[in-house]
Design goal:
With 203 residues, the protein is of the alpha+beta class. It is 32% helix and 37% strand.
Length: 203
């Protein structure tokens, strides 16, 4: 991933795409995912839609700074399906995504080279049919202060247009903020400079 504080992903599942090669049909799908549980749920969904298909090949990647990815050839020759699909995920510099290509065999063998080309093309068509968006990489901070300092804290939140995740405003106050990574150090310094206000990053 590029060294920036944003990443590219897709907003919602793509439209179904269809690529044909020598009688074989390749149906392509892209889904936004953020963990392995979501991947498994989506795969079951696709399999229930195509009960008679033999191959459900896929690649997925999630994470922004630490990347997790996996590829699956699902019975096709080794590295002829999952890796070509994953290559398109890398080419589009996209994350938090699962691409599934469902193949119906058309009677003519394509050979390893033909399969690589077909799965790559199907994944590319699927990504081109997807709405790709940019999202910022954010970090969360906890701000702790006495109620008497609430006006100072709220002024900074308003001036800096900060995103409040949750707040507990009693005698002892606690606010959880989500801050864009590139601004985190600056914002942390602003809160740190206020007497009787403490701020710490949440892992």
């Amino acid at each position: 991933m590029p060294d920036t504080d944003y990443y590219k992903t897709i907003k919602k599942p793509s439209k179904e795409t269809l690529f044909k090669e020598k009688g074989s049909k390749f149906y392509g799908y892209a889904f936004p995912v953020s963990n392995n549980t979501e991947v498994n749920t989506v795969l079951e969904l696709v399999k229930s839609k195509h009960k008679s298909a033999r191959h459900f090949c896929y690649a997925y990647q999630h994470g922004t700074e630490s990347i997790y990815y996996r590829v699956n050839d699902d019975g096709e020759p080794s590295n002829s399906a999952g890796m070509p699909i994953y290559g398109q995920i890398q080419s589009f510099e996209i994350t938090n995504i699962l691409i599934v290509v469902v193949r119906y065999f058309g009677g003519t063998k394509l050979g390893v080279g033909g399969l690589i080309s077909a799965y790559k093309t199907s994944a590319k068509l699927t990504l081109e049919a997807s709405k790709i968006i940019k999202k910022t990489i954010d970090v969360q901070f906890e701000v702790i202060f006495d109620y008497q300092n609430i006006n100072k804290v709220m002024r900074i939140i308003k001036e800096k247009n900060l995103n409040v995740i949750s707040q507990q405003l009693e005698m002892d106050c606690k606010i959880i903020l989500s801050i864009r990574k590139s601004k985190a150090e600056e914002i942390e310094g602003v809160f740190d400079s206020i007497y009787e206000v403490s701020i710490k990053q949440i892992d």
